[in-house]
Amino acid sequence: MNPTKNLAVWMDHSAAQLIDLRSDNKGSSIQSNFNSENKEEALKKSESLMHNKEQQMQEAYYKSIAEHILDYNHVLLFGPTDAKRELHNYLSKNTHFKDITIDVVSADKMTDNEKHAFAKKHFERQL
After folding, report:
1. What's the CA dihedral at 120, 121, 126, 127 to 10 degrees?
2. Other beta carbons within 10 Å of 103
3. Hey, which of 19, 42, 81, 120 would disulfide with 8, CB 3.0 to 4.6 Å?
4. Structural domain contains residue 71
5. Assigned domain for 17 exists
C-alpha cells in the first residue's frame, strides 16, 4: 500500500500556502489575482462587472490550488475566512477529487511555524 501523501493548505481569499510536511522547504504559495485595484477598476464600470470579474478570478485561484491537490491522498484546508469552504465546494463538484480525503478546519491567522505545527498535529491525529 502506498503511504498517505498529506497536504495542508492555509488559505484566505487572497493567498494560499501549500504545506507538504514531508518536504524540507517552507511550502509554496499561490496568490489570487483579484485585489483591491482590480475591484476598484471593475466597480467603476459597474457592480455587476465587478462581481463577474471576482468570480472568474476566484475560480482561477481555486483551480490553481486544485491542480496541486491532485497529487495528494489527504488534504487539510484551514484558515480564517470562508475561502476554505468555497474551495471545498469547488472540489466536491469535480470527480477527480472523489478519492481524496479533504478536511476543512477553521483557524485564526498564524505564523508559518504555527501553520506547520497545526498541520502536523492534525495529520498525526488522523493516524
Report:
1. 80
2. 15
3. 19
4. yes
5. yes
- The CATH number that applies at residue 10 is 3.30.420.60
Domain presence at residue 1 = no
How far apart are the C-alpha atoms of 17 and 7, rounded to whole Å? Answer: 10
Mean pLDDT value across residues 74-100: 95
Grid cell, residue 1, equals: 500500500
In a domain? residue 32: yes
Evaluate if residue 1 carries a pLDDT over 50: no
What is the C-alpha to C-alpha distance for residues 19 and 111, in angstroms, rounded to an integer? Answer: 13
The C-alpha cell at 17 is: 500556502
DSSP 105: E
CA distance linking residue 17 with residue 89, whole number of Å? 19
For the chain, percent of residues with pLDDT exceeding 90: 65
